[in-house]
Design a protein that fits this description.
The complex is a heterodimer of chains A (112) and B (113). With 112 residues, chain A is an all-beta fold. Helices cover 0% and strands 51% of the residues of chain A. In chain A, β5 and β6 form a beta hairpin. Chain B is built from no helices and twelve strands. In chain B, the strands form three sheets. In chain B, strands 2, 5, 6, 10, 11 and 12 form a six-stranded mixed β-sheet that branches. A four-stranded antiparallel β-sheet of chain B has the order 3-9-8-7, with no helix packed on it. In chain B, a hairpin with a 2-residue loop joins β7 and β8.
């Protein structure tokens, strides 16, 4: 079945460590997105990529980095520079005709 | 300024009644798209409906319809015959010309038995 996978579902890290969140899709979508969601809040765009080897900053890119070496993969690294990294992270991809956006199940990151 | 505004933080609706969730947007692009998503307590984001800015008819998907009023920059979601399983957070989102998709803060809908 086609879809978006994110791993792991739960992730725990110590403060000061970088951590990479995985996002893979087999929907053949060109565009991919990373969002952050805090409790009781909406989604805020971190980074997005319209095509392989290209990506743009969203509204809250500071302290995060991404790569898009393959169409299927869009990993997000939460660096130690991110002040409040504990959050729910959602990855999404969008179809070529851009009328749908599908989400992965999300990763809950806790940094202590 | 917010690009997507959802003015209702929470709503309580009796089961089987219709419900309208408000969404207004702000863009200077001529080509854009509007989405609605449902997020149950599990956290997954479920795509509900899409409206393109050039679509002349309001989008419908089963019990969901989007009341698109372009001049007012309004894209309200209407759920007919609400069910207990409709209790969730609902997010309105907009895609602008550069493929950036941004979300509103959401409305928490409670369906009462």
């Amino acid at each position: 079945d086609g879809g978006i996978t994110q791993s792991p579902k739960y992730l725990f890290r110590k403060e000061g460590q970088n951590v990479t969140l995985s996002c893979e899709q087999n929907l053949n979508h060109d565009a991919m997105y990373w969002y952050r969601q805090d409790p009781g809040q909406g989604l805020r765009l971190i980074y997005y990529s319209q095509i392989v080897n290209d990506f743009q900053k969203g509204d809250i890119a500071e302290g995060y980095s991404v790569s898009r070496e393959k169409k299927e993969s869009f990993p997000l690294t939460v660096t130690s520079a991110q002040k409040n990294p504990t959050a729910f992270y959602l990855c999404a991809s969008s179809s070529r005709d851009r009328d749908k956006q599908y989400f992965g199940p999300g990763t809950r990151l806790t940094v202590t | 300024a917010q690009k997507i505004t959802q003015t209702q933080p929470g709503m309580f609706v009796q089961e089987k009644e219709a419900v309208t969730l408000d969404c207004t947007y702000d863009t200077s692009d001529q080509s854009y798209g509007l989405f609605w998503y449902k997020q149950p307590s599990s956290g997954e984001m479920i795509f509900l409906i899409y409206q393109g800015s050039y679509d002349e008819q309001n989008a419908t998907e089963g019990r969901y319809s989007l009341n698109f009023q372009k001049a007012r920059k309004s894209a309200n979601l209407v759920i007919s015959a609400s069910q207990l399983g409709d209790s969730a957070m609902y997010f309105c989102a907009m895609r602008e010309g550069d493929d950036k998709i941004i979300f509103g803060k959401g409305t928490r809908l409670h369906i009462l038995p």
